[in-house]
Amino acid sequence: MSANSTTSKFASQTESTAMSEALSTASQNSETASTALSTAMSETLSALSNNGGGNNGNGGNTGNGGNNGNGGSTLPNGNGEDGYLTLNNAIATIVQRHVETVIYDKPNGKITNRELAEGTDWKAFQQYTDANGLVWYNLGGNQWIKSTGVILDAKPFTYKELSKVGVVKPGTSAPVYSLPGVKGQLNGQVLKAGTAWHISASVYTNDGTLWYRVGTNQWVKAEFINLRGEQGFRDVATIKYAKGYGIAVWTDANESAATGKKLEAGSSWQVFGKTVGKNGHTFYNIGGKQWIDGTYVILRSSHSTTVVPKSQTTIKYVPGYGIKTWQSPTSKVSGETLLDGQTYSVWATEVVNNNVWYQVGDNQWIQGKFTTGLR
Which Pfam families does the entry link to (predicted)? Predict the structure, then answer.
């Protein structure tokens, strides 16, 4: 998600255009809370106010923490009395997960028809603490948001949505905070060394610290985390699963969503990459946004399979009894039973952990130690 993006369920085309132009101007001229950013945000919020955002006049926001236009809104002095405090060059960044930040016409007032998207930055002019201790931020005129999931010390335009796996570095542990930056409180949870976690977002704070989000209201400092990325990898994967069934194909290695496609047991697929999923399993990429769990595959490169020409073997077991066939030398799924004394054609041999296996049919492998050998 771009830090310049916004969500407005009912905003008109005029409002959207004004917002885009204002944020674009700010992004091009500054990566910090500069004058360009403050002006852009002020103009954006004024444009919203002119079209029903709570100001009925010209919304002339001078950027000094009070709306001096004739839109019918006058903010308190902001000297700390009555819970109000003026903010100087403050940028409010929305960091809460999957929850839109709604705009109120005043603290504990009525909800307007606008919402601010996760990851967006907004100029904040005043702070108010209500009787219940809840902090509110004023974004200009009659536009207030709760401070829940909002921080004032993020570097503008550094918030990013991610979908990666992070592993806690060896010899360390990662304390978990409720929020990144100075507002963050330790929640008592500590991530142990070597454990893997899904990283869904990152943000830099003004002190230069990079933070990763590992859950709702759960943030850790990046200094304790190694990110795992996708590696280029070429091989052939054969699906090892129950006969007649298949495994799911996922859009990413974190199993965020299934594609609806199933790969049948015994089928083989080209592999183009690999990575580690949030469940700790290796996932293989079979093209585009198609990932499969390595738990259910056999890689061609992991075993030495030799095709043998016109060979046969005879089952050598207990008279009247037989041995099981298996879908592959490493499969836990068995098939039919081959009786002692019966002879079968052998298609290929494979050595796994110093044990010889014979392939006697499609997805049918037997252990060589229960036969007379090849002839």
Answer: SlpA
Domain ranges of the chain: 13-151, 160-228, 231-301, 304-370
User: Which two tokens mark 336?
Assistant: 């039919």
Q: Strand, coil or helix: what is 83?
A: helix
**DSSP code at position 22:** H
> Which carries the bigger pLDDT value, residue 320 or residue 304?
320
Which strands form 297-299's sheet, in the order they lie side by side? 258-264, 246-250, 291-293, 282-285, 268-276, 231-239, 297-299
Q: Which of 247, 250, 354 is closest to 298 using CA atoms?
A: 247
**Are 59 and 67 within 8 A, CB to CB?**
yes
Give the pLDDT confidence of 101-135 residue by residue, as tens digits: 999 999 999 999 999 999 999 999 999 999 999 99
Task: Please provide residue 350's backbone torsions phi and psi, each rounded to the nearest 5 degrees.
Answer: -150, 140
Model confidence pTM above 0.70: no
